Amino acid sequence: MEEKIMLTGIRSTGAPHLGNILGVIIPSVSIANQNTKHSSCIFIADLHSMIQIEKKSMTTIKNNTYQIAAAWLAFGLNIDNCLFYRQSDVSFVTELAWYFNCFYPYQRLALAHAFKKEIKKIDKEKISVGLFTYPILMAADILLYNAKLIPVGKDQLQHIEITRRIANYFNKKIGKKLFVLPHAFLQKNMFVIGTDGKKMSKSKKNCINIFSSDEILKKQIMSIRTDSKSIKEKKNPETDYIMSLYSLIAPVDKIEIMKKKYLKGGYGYYEAKIALYEYIIHKFSSEREKFFSFIKKKSLLDHILASGAKKANRIAYERLNFIRKHLKFNPII
Ligand code: TRP
């Protein structure tokens, strides 16, 4: 049976938070390391990050790419087995995005939830065309490699749906199955809440960042919202946010012990937060150590990403030429 190509990207918005790690990085590394050579693509979506150019400089975006790269490597991604690259280093994708721009109806794209939500938040003058066509570039990321399995967070589901529609439009118009239809690969039960109980997200400033210093990490954990029950009182483990986060990472026996403490009373939220903090430090000690070591070696990271891009460019070149042929364009000179 032919292996399904897996592909995923994370925007270069800084070190990935616990939600990214549990929802995308850990499951993707596990698939990529098992897949046969070059059947997995993992990239840093720095072109997508450019939609924040109003707020962030290109230097910040570049520095953030190192943070993302270091995080993937810290979680043990085997770079010999997959294509690991910066999106901007494989620029064939922007050509494919243009084709999709021409094939996809404007009105449909205007219905995208993420876009509609975003434009409510920002000044009209600041809405870029890039923000609007964001899903088109994402479709190009995926379809350029004919990737089928796309590990993403729930917020990206509509983008995958748009990618499927684009693939369909294109295939129909050309009269040939040039693109396979991808599927989102969601981690079941992996709803990672942030410190305020809402979905963990950089924009909500409710993140737990395991790749920050001990001090900052502790501060983030201490800021988890709780009710105002005193130490003495019995607490509800089902509705508490500390417990919810602890349950995602701790082993069953430890979770059970904490649950009992909650139900019995005499156990304060402060203690629970300390337990969560200590468990995070313990669980991710080797990843944190590797991250802090990689982040100091920018030239090594540059080298790794450049050799990944070289391999990716070779595959992308072939694929794009094949697509160009069906569009009656000449091969790339
Ligand atoms: N939009 C994704 C995010 O913000 C990042 C991304 C860009 C991506 N291109 C992709 C994810 C292709 C999966 C596949 O999380």
Structure description:
By secondary structure, the protein is mainly alpha-helical. It has 2 domains: 6-192 and 297-326, Rossmann fold, CATH 3.40.50; 214-286, Tyrosyl-Transfer RNA Synthetase, CATH 1.10.240. It is built from 14 helices and 5 strands. The protein has helices at 18-34, 46-49, 58-74, 92-103, 106-109, 113-121, 129-143, 157-174, 214-222, 241-249, 252-264, 269-283, 285-294, 298-326, and strands at residues 6-11, 40-45, 83-86, 149-151, 183-185. A 3-stranded parallel sheet has the order 1-2-3. Helix 10 (241-249) runs parallel beside helix 12 (269-283). The protein is globular. Bound molecules: tryptophan (TRP). Tryptophan (TRP) is lined by residues 7-11, 45, 48, 138, 141-142, 150, 152, 156.
> How would a textbook summarize the main sheet?
3 strands, parallel
Overall 3D form: globular
Bound heterogens, unique: tryptophan
The ordered H/E elements are EHEHHEHHHHEHEHHHHHH
Structural category is mainly alpha
CATH architecture of the largest domain: 3-Layer(aba) Sandwich
The CATH class assignment of the largest domain is: Alpha Beta
Q: From the 3D structure, determine the CATH topology of the largest domain.
A: Rossmann fold
Mean pLDDT across residues: 95
> Alpha-carbon distance between the termini?
35 Å
Task: State Rg.
Answer: 22 Å
How much of the sequence lies in strands comes to 5-15%
Key attributes of the depicted protein:
333 residues, mainly alpha, Rossmann fold, Tyrosyl-Transfer RNA Synthetase, 2 domains, three-stranded parallel beta sheet, two-stranded parallel ribbon, 5 strands, globular, binds tryptophan
